[in-house]
Every structure is written in C-alpha cells, then in structure tokens.
TrEMBL record:
InterPro entries: DUF4239 (IPR025333). Residues 158-185 form a coiled coil. Keywords: Coiled coil, Membrane, Transmembrane, Transmembrane helix. This is DUF4239 domain-containing protein. It comes from the Bacteria.
Length: 285
C-alpha cells in the first residue's frame, strides 16, 4: 500500500496521523482482547509478573533495533544534506573558474550554469518533493556540456583551465546523480516490515496484562502506543530526505545563485577576442 501521500501533510498533521493510528491500534486491540485474556490466558491476573518480564525483554530488543534504524536514517539524511551542499559548492567553483575563459565562451557557459542553478531551485526541488525526477535540469546541463565541449584551448594556460573545469564538472555531475538517487531511496521493505511487526508485538504484549481498572489499562496502553508512534514518525520523516516539511531545502543553491552568480554581466567582446594571445579575463565575483 502506497503511503507516500502522508508526506504531503504538514509535519504537525503527519505526526498526529502516525501517533493517532498507533494509539487507536493499541487501545482498540486492548478492548478486543481483554475478555479473551481474562477468561483463558490470565484469570485473576496471576500472570502479570511473567508478562512484565517479557514486555521488558521485547521492549529492550525492539528499542535498540528501532534506535539503530533511527540513527541510520538520520545519518543518511545528513549525508544527503552534505552532498547537496558539496554540489552547490562545486557549482560555485565552476562558475568562478569560468570567469577565466575567453569571450564569447565565458558568457555563454556562465549563463548556462546560472540557468542550471535556477532550474535546480525552481523546477528540480518541487519535483523531488513530489517524488519525481525532472528532465528540465538535465537539458540545461547537456546544453552547458555541449558548449564546453565546443571550446578549443588555444594555449597551455587555457588547456590547464579547461582540464580543471572538466574535472569540477564531473564531480558536480556525480554529486547530482547521487542526489537524484537519494530522492527515491528508502529503507528496504523487509526493514519496514520488522519495524511495524515489532511495534505491534510490543503493543500486543501490553494487552496480556490483567487490570481491574480498564481506564488505567487503556491509558497505559495508549501512552505506550503514542511513544512508539513518535518513534515511527521520526523514522518515516528522515527516511525520505526530500519529502515532507523536514525535507532538505535548496538553500545551498540559492546562496550560490545570490552571492556568486548574481553579478554584473560583462559586455561581450567581439568574436575575435578569444583569438588574442592573452585571453580577456573578468574579475572573480
């Protein structure tokens, strides 16, 4: 069953839905099993001590497992966030290096890279938040690569600069592919099955207690279920780094666009400018 629609909810509603669902399962299960437990499994509640022992054991194992999974998802979230920052930094370095290219290639390539950065912010990120892979940014990047491939270095300095720009482009493109892969990555289905099954087992053990006060029993089961629900919410939220309110924003790219790529456009030199012995350079922004 596809549950990705839940990521379209605000975080407050997202958390409420997950926690409320676990509480409903816990309290409803208590009322459905209470009569059977009292009549057949633990009459007069003489097995409460045994149930407490098993609840503690199961809770410890499940708590450790879920904690490790939560730490793993957080680490994955942080790695993706770092990758986005590194990708934006590579775009900034690439833009600065292009300032050393002769005209008209310099302006063409910088315009392409600026258009790519804008497309990442305006088109890629909304698509990633919807779980889609946009093609617009790929087209802009291909245009940039085509323009770069058409450039022919005229001297040793331009050859070194061209090789450096190619290296940075390859690194930026590698980070871009990792970002796209991370957009649709998630914990394996078997892991999620274990998480949900463990939650049900922990709640089910609470149903085996026998208490004279149904209100107290229901309250305790509800609190236990709510705690598990909060842990599930955190794990679900971090599992999709580009979905939900807690998703990674395009702030790194916006910062590069505002601070590095928003520069005065240099006037284009005549087409013969790139044939001079000394390339025309622009100040590094």
């Amino acid at each position: 069953m596809d549950l990705l629609w839940i990521y379209t909810l605000p975080d407050a509603w997202f958390c409420t839905v997950v926690v409320l669902a676990t509480v409903i399962v816990g309290v409803a299960g208590l009322f459905l099993t209470r009569g059977f437990v009292r009549r057949h499994l633990a009459p007069e509640g003489e097995k409460n001590e045994l149930v407490s022992y098993f609840l503690a054991a199961i809770g410890v194992f499940y708590g450790i497992t879920l904690g490790l999974i939560a730490v793993g998802t957080w680490q994955g979230f942080a790695d993706v966030q770092k990758g986005v920052s590194d990708e934006a930094a590579k775009a900034a370095s690439l833009y600065r290096d292009l300032s050393q290219f002769p005209e008209p290639e310099r302006t063409d390539l910088r315009d392409d890279l600026r258009d790519y950065t804008k497309a990442v912010i305006q088109k890629t990120w909304p698509a990633l938040q919807r779980g889609e892979t946009p093609k617009e940014t790929t087209e802009v990047l291909v245009r940039f690569i085509d323009h770069l491939g058409a450039f022919e270095p005229k001297n040793a300095r331009e050859q070194v600069l061209f090789a450096e720009v190619q290296r940075e482009l390859n690194e930026m493109n590698e980070l871009r592919r990792k970002r796209i892969e991370a957009a649709n990555s998630s914990l394996p289905g078997a892991v999620w099955a274990m998480v949900y099954a463990g939650a049900i087992l922990n709640i089910a053990v609470c149903w085996l207690f026998v208490s004279k006060s149904i209100r107290l029993h229901a309250t305790l089961v509800g609190l236990m279920s709510a705690l598990i629900g909060f842990l599930l919410f955190v794990t679900l939220e971090l599992d999709r780094p580009f979905r939900g309110d807690l998703s990674i924003p395009p702030d790194a790219f916006q910062l590069v666009l505002d601070d590095v790529m928003t520069t005065d456009r240099e006037p284009r030199n005549p087409p013969t400018a790139h044939r001079t012995s000394k390339p025309v350079t622009a100040p590094v922004p």
